[in-house]
Design brief:
Lipoxygenase-1; 4-stranded antiparallel sheet
């Protein structure tokens, strides 16, 4: 299966990724940047992050836009409900921007009982 792609402007600023979690959810997450072959992961987040702290859930990606061509951005989260009620759902939203312009939004959603682990990826194209 091919990766979803996001096109970056060469000469623009570094892209940013923001993760959002809805429906009164607690999440612990990590974001990594892999090489073109899906190997050699480098952390984008300095350590596991939490959506419940006072820190923004927005991170710059890569040392330069030119080095991001064909690289794979990966994010994964352990998502938990605060009160386990029947019929609950989760939403993990990743928003990718460059120079303040929204490039793409990727949603992962589904039912949740207690905790779920979800992840997603995107491949960068530089033009």
């Amino acid at each position: 299966m091919e990766h979803k792609t996001v096109t970056l402007r060469n000469g623009g600023g570094l892209p940013k990724i923001e993760l959002r979690f809805s429906n009164a959810l607690f999440a612990k997450y990590e974001i990594s940047l892999f090489d073109q072959n899906g190997k050699n992961p480098q952390p984008v987040t300095p350590q596991p992050q939490f959506n419940s702290d006072d820190e923004p859930d927005i991170f710059s990606v890569g040392p330069s836009v030119a080095t991001l061509a064909q690289r794979i951005l990966f994010w994964q989260a352990a998502i938990s409900v605060l009160d386990d009620q029947p019929g609950q759902t989760y939403l993990m939203r990743a928003i990718l921007t460059q120079d303040g312009e929204e490039l793409a939004v990727f949603d992962r959603r589904g039912p949740i009982t207690n905790t779920v682990i979800d992840q997603d990826t995107v491949r960068f194209v530089v033009e």
